Structure formats: structure tokens, C-alpha cells
# Entry
Amino acid sequence: MFLSVFDMFKVGIGPSSSHTMGPMVAAARFLDKMRAAPFAYAGLRASLHGSLAFTGVGHATDRATILGLAGFRPETYDADAAAKALAEIKSTHRLSPKGIGDLRFNPEADLIFDYDRALPGHANGMILKALDAQGDVILQQVYYSIGGGFVMTEEELAAGKATDEGAPVPYPFKSAAEMLEMARHSGLSIAGMKRANEISRGGAATLSKGIARIWAVMNDCIDRGLTRDGLLPGGLMVKRRAKGIHDALQAERGRNLSAPHTINDWMSAYAMAVNEENAAGGQVVTAPTNGAAGVLPATIRYYLDHVPGASTSRIEEFLLTASAIGGLVKFNASISGAEAGCQAEVGSASAMAAAGLCAVLGGTPEQIENAAEIALEHHLGMTCDPVRGLVQVPCIERNGLGAIKAVSAASLALRGDGTHLVPLDACIETMRQTGADMSEKYKETSLGGLAVNVPNC
# Structure
């Protein structure tokens, strides 16, 4: 099994990888399908199902779908151009995607939130249709946004299509047990094996350049979030808090005013900065999702800013290790909140961050696996119940706590020799089973939990 570090960490836009990025990617794929089958197209229609319907407005799924059908893609998204295009589409009821021509599309009538019909493949389902001049469907495709910006057609999902279809890689581990055995046999670290796999596909220069960009976007997102205040969009009147916390922490520095536990506030500020940017529709990196995008970069900033001897040269090792763990979770369980609750998002992110931190602090493969297991184990059962369907409450603070748990997990693992009772594989399987048993109202539908017990207007 091979899942590239650039599949796990994708540059995109907020507020959601599954509900914003995924629908935009699906729309782009449908346009490609239309270009490959050049019928006489005259219009487009889309329907959103399951979680995409229930929390779609709060997650900007409607906006993302419309813009995707207009030709926008997450990796090259321009906010100003998108705002202009959206206003024009709503005014003219026309779309003009490149290479296809002028198409009818009335957002009020042709984008349907179907709350009654769930699609069988996944909680995040959507159907895209191309119409002829009479309004008859001449091309149709069902897509599923399966978390982290990953999209599959219904045929791909039904066929059990693997994430990877390329040439074999040197270390194709599908489980943590296989990963540890390969590490023992090869003498390589987890990052070393992951690096060899990546280089076998794309080359060393591509790997280093790509990882440098991933970290630059992550770090820039933290820095932007630490300088902005005001209210987040969506109507909950949630205030940005990262800047105020960070300003206060900087003012306390060197004045012996801080208790040791204040380090947790630094980590929370870094994570909240990212997730406030995400909630505002800014540029983030899936890690492994948008809703959990703050955990891993916050843990890296903790390492760089607060750990003696830390070096930016170790960021590649951190991210490669983290992506190896994230790949195991995605392959054997889920990273989708709509499929398995927030344990699959912030829990996975915390496990990835714990593994990465443990690695750069000198942990053995066994200690790294232990760190990931500790972090994931203590997120088991966590629900996804965003108030008003917005990726704000409890999501923003939750990322800070996920980073804190990641650091604690790495530290505990480093205090041991890597032996422990619960294997990471067992923890991942438990997370999968827990997600399967979890009530749908706690899986990104905003039909239960905080979403119905907190005033949201």
C-alpha cells in the first residue's frame, strides 16, 4: 500500500476538506468527463446527499460545488476571482467552464440539497448531471467525498479501488506490524522507508521541494492566523482568539509570569490560528483533513519554537513519519468525520503529529508506533457535532487539545522502550468499529451533541 505524502497533505481551502475541497474536486472531475464525451451540453445540475446536505451550507459545499463546475480547483483557488465568478453566476444563471462552453445553471434550482435520500456508498455523496437543450440528462456521475479531499466515483468505490495504482514501492506496508517488521529488517527509520517509497515514484528533488512547500503553507497559515482578529463568518459570532492569546503570551515572555503549563497555551494558539483561518475560508493544508488542519503544524511549531536543539532540517522527517501513520489510518479505517466522527479527524491528526514529534526527538520505530497509538487511543469515540454545521465550535479549540495530546503522547512513548499493551493496528481497528457503531447524528450531520444543545443563533 502506498499513499503519497502529497495525497495526505494537500494545499486547499477552508472550511472543510470533505465538504468544500471534495465537492470542488468532484466537479472538476465531472468537467473532465464532459470534455472527454463531447455531447451537445446545455446545462448542469447537482444534488447533495447525506452529510453534504445536512451541513453543506455551513461548510460552503454549495459555493464549492458551483465554483468547481465553473472550473475552479482547490490547489489554484483565487478568492477574489471566485467571489467575482460566483456573483456573475448568481446573476446570469450561466456557467462557462473552459473547453465546454456556455451552460445553464441556476443555483437556486439546479443545486439541490436532498435531505431525504442518502446514497449507499458513503455519507458524503453527490450526483452531478449534464443536460441537453431540452433539460434531459445526457451524462451523470455519482461522486463520494471520502475525507481529506479524496474523491471517488461510485464505480471506483464499489470496485474497492485502491488509492494507489502505480509501480511497486520498496516498502509497501499495509499495517503498523508490517511497518515495524520492515524497519527492523531494513535498518531504516519509518521516515527512511517512506522517503524511499516517495523517491521511487517522484525523485528526491520533487520530494524535497514539495515538502518544503507544504510546510511553508502550513507555517504561513499559522502566521496569518496569529495576526488577525474579528468575527468568523457564519452567524455564530465566534471571535478569533489566537491573536489575543499569542499577544498575551509574547508580553509575558521573560517576565517570569508564566506557569510551566502555559506551554499548552502556545500550542493551542498555533492550532487555533490555523483553524480560524480555515473557518474563514483561507488557504490551509489537509493534515489529514481541514477540520483537523491545525494539530500537526501546531506540533511542528511547538518543536521549532520551544524545544532546545530543534532544527528545520528535521521537518521532512516529521512530515514523512506523520504521513506514514496517516496512510495506515486511512487505509484501515477512516479520516472522515462524516464516516467515523471526529476521532477520525482530530484523532488521526493527533496520532500523526505524535509520531512525527517522536521521530524528530530521536524515537525508535517502536516508540513512534507507541506514540501514535497513545494519541489515537485517547480520541476514541469522539463525535463530530459542529454547531450550525460550521467548522468552528467545537472544532477550533479541539485542534489545540489535539496538539497537546500529541506532545504528551510522544513524551510518554519516549519514556518507554516501545513495548506496550495495545498495538496501533488494534487501536485503528477499534476506531473503525466505533465509527461504524456511532449514531449518524454524531457524524457531521449537526443533528446531535453540541449542535442541538448549544444556542446557535
About this structure: Residues 204-225 form the longest helix (22 residues). The chain has a mean pLDDT of 95.
